[in-house]
Amino acid sequence: MLNDRSSPLSLLETRRSATPRELVGPAPTRAELAEIITIAARIPDHGKLHPWRFVTVAEDQRDTLASLLHEALAEENPEASEAHHKKEDEFAHYEGQLVVLVSAPIEGHKIPVWEQQLSAGAAGMNLLMGAHALGYVAGWVTGWRAYSEYVRAAFCSPGERIAGFIFIGHPARELEERDRPALSEVWTGWKPRP
Ligand SMILES: Cc1cc2nc3c(=O)[nH]c(=O)nc-3n(C[C@H](O)[C@H](O)[C@H](O)COP(=O)(O)O)c2cc1C
Question: Which residues, 6+ apart, have CB-to-CB distance to 7 below 8 Å?
Fold first, then answer.
């Protein structure tokens, strides 16, 4: 059962993502969102740098987001088709709460940037878990938008980058399980070199 939240273990064992375009409302309330983000921020963070942050896009900002994506797409790919622009409009209006996860590493710090980026990944993961624990489903996507300099500049300060767009809502249909790697593929005992 993918929505079994009856114990801490089942919570961990049943979480799975939804495709953001298939999410429906209602989105988390402001108080729930604060709880989800608090959980997301409670993650390993070498040096206590919190090299990540969360930017929420309000419901009444979705048209502005759509305009931004149209402008970004036109700049990135002047040949982009009408269908592609339509897709961006749809993306900007997906239901649920949009949280943009920003990776904000401190360059030149004694804590390597790699570790700071790993911490951002952990923040994203806990955001998904927190949403699941509160009875929501989330989906983490990137795509060209996360790598567009135009979009980056709208969400990030210099040196920061978009780690993902995470939508939180409810699944429009029952989620199906997906294949997971066999334990033998991801778990071995250490074999020291002779
Ligand atoms: C950093 C990151 C970026 C991702 N970007 C996309 C994406 O752009 N499109 C997509 O379909 N899935 C993307 N995914 C995968 C989904 O978020 C998710 O992992 C997948 O749908 C199955 O997730 P589950 O194992 O949580 O069920 C991304 C995952 C991560 C960690």
Answer: none
